[in-house]
Design brief:
Length: 149
């Protein structure tokens, strides 16, 4: 965030303007969807490009979960037809739906079960009789991790 505020004011203004534009498009999209989608989706991008078919627009929409993305996919054909009727979206060729990534913690869960030293010995002993080297090594590592708690 610090880097954002160190940018020239014109860059920040452009960023804010783009953010407001995406909010505007999100509101336009939501007018063609049931009210239940409010707060569940947002527009990530809207772009135009030239192709051999002429100018084509692409709309990228984010949903808060895979379930909401699936619901939105159900409405996509109707949404595309409806929103394409507006002049600024008349060249809409593609609607892409993404699932917003969740904030996943990379820290180890401190509520992991405690295993006995006996469990580590059993795993270690069992590994000695495994012929598959990869599986054998994996069990030995597991025994070290279980015994190291």
């Amino acid at each position: 965030m610090k880097k954002v505020f160190q940018q020239p004011a014109i860059s920040i203004d452009r960023l804010l303007q783009h953010s407001r534009y995406l909010e505007y498009i999100t509101k336009r999209v939501l007018t063609y969807l049931p009210d239940e989608f409010s707060g569940k989706i947002s527009v990530l991008g809207f772009s135009s490009r030239l192709s051999n078919k002429g100018k084509q627009q692409s709309l990228i929409i984010s949903a808060i979960s895979a379930a909401w993305a699936s619901k939105l996919r159900f409405y996509t054909p109707t949404l595309k037809r409806s929103i394409s009727a507006e002049p600024q979206f008349s060249q809409l060729g593609k609607i892409t739906i993404k699932v917003a990534s969740a904030n996943i913690s990379t820290k180890k869960d401190k509520k992991m079960p405690n295993y006995s030293h006996n469990a580590a010995e059993i795993i270690q002993d069992s590994a000695q009789f495994i012929e598959n080297d990869e599986l054998k090594e994996a069990l030995i590592r597991l025994a070290r991790n279980v015994g190291g708690q």
